[in-house]
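Subject: for your reference before the review

Hello V.,

The reviewers asked for a structural picture of the protein, and I figured it would be easier to keep everything in one thread rather than splitting it across files. Below is the amino acid sequence we used in the manuscript, unchanged from the supplementary table.
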Amino acid sequence: MQNIYQHIKQLIKIGIALSIEKDINKLLEMIVDEARSFSNADAGTLYIVDEDTRSLRFEILQNDTMKDRMGGTSKKKISLPNVSMYKNDKPNHSNVSSYVALTGEIVNVPDVYETKKFDFTGPRNYDAATGYRSKSMLVLPMKNHENNIIGVLQLLNAQDLNTKEIIPFQDEFVDMINSLASQAAVAVTNVQLIAELKNLFYAFIKSIATAIDEKSPYTGGHIRRVTELTMNIADKINETDEGPFQDVHFNNDELEELRIAAWMHDVGKITTPESVVDKSTKLEAIFDRIELVKTRFKLIEKSIENKYLQKKIKLLQKKGDHKTETKNLDKMRNEEIAKVHEEIEFITSCNKTGEFIADEIVERLKKIAAKTFIYEDKEFPYLDINELNNLCIRKGTLISAEREIIENHAKMTLKITEQLPFPKNLSNVPLIASAHHEKINGSGYPQKLSGDQIPLQARILAVADIFEALTAKDRPYKDPMKLSTAVNILNSMKAEKHIDPDIYDLFIGSHLHDDYAKKELDPAQIDNSETKKK
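And here is what came back from the structure prediction:
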């Protein structure tokens, strides 16, 4: 009775331990360890039902006599083939483990060499090859809370505690071991459900990220690349044992938090109009309005021709020789038309550039816009005010109103992610995801955070996001940037306190930028000789 009482206490303790363990490999290993301890079994095997192949998959294999520990945390793979639960579409009742998986019955065999109910060719071949002697065997189904069989627990060679002699598995312990198997099945199911929910959540996040990338044909893969680069920086910080990050170590939950935040950092772009996201030229809206301007300038050219034609007609209506005057009119007409051609070429070049434009270019654009022409007795400007404002954009292709729309995606990322019921260990995802445009000096957005107000994970994400954007080879508004240029820009941003200087130093000092360039950039972008050598 005392032994039974102790076993019950042990069973309760094991049940608690099983319910706490979340690592599937540790959990499966613990199940076999504890079942063997209960029954004093020399060996044990755990199978999991594979619904797709209708077979039992080896997960854990232990044998103390043979000093074998395979599967689980051992890192030693089990090379044995799955046990088929069906042969020729008929239930495989000849194999004891598949029989138990199919019927849900417990099988207790005193000596596998003295029974003909099951085919024990496998254990006998193992014995012949190793010198081992398989004898007593206990095989139990692992039934979860829905009474579904998810696996099979097989114990081999129960031993007498005192003599170590191989004995049959005692009936008084079978019920307890069966109870353990059921608890284990529930624990395994819970871990599997958690893993499946996690996989579903990640799949959902990735599908949203893919949709955002696909929304713009020019940013495909941006979120994936940013996420990978972000995690590379975080891993490097964890490896560092000196400098400013020597006391920083992200645990598994913090890494998970950062990974999810990286995948979701641009989720707010769902609300951003494609015409703004994809604005490749200054005059682009739903389409590139440079074509309208070109058409207008052709009309201006025709109006100039018409003006001089009218003057010629008036001359011809007068008596006398007007050859000299006509030639002068032709010369003036050609000069004006040449000027119009020059101006539309200049406007077209201004429309395409994403580089910084100087004051003299802005002034010339204003002078062109101030000109007018007559069409159907009405006066029209060469350029309307909206066209002028867009063409005078100092850098990039966005006017201030459009830039505000773009910047609003960070605020929307916060708003969207705050609606998700993240568990406590992932509660910082909204802040990290939405803060990737915050700057150390407080000039960023959406919340104007500064310094340590910005989570370290968000500062990592910011560096990854900026570097990916600088070096991206698929943006319509700029040519692919050289690696050295991108590094110089990052260095300037460090000096201006836009990005975390310690993260920049780690990023460049550990050559993560070189590793990224080698993997993601075109060879023509890599102008660093050290990177080329790698």
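For the response letter, the relevant points are probably these. Residues 290-397 form one domain. The chain has a mean pLDDT of 88.

Happy to draft the paragraph if you're swamped.

O.
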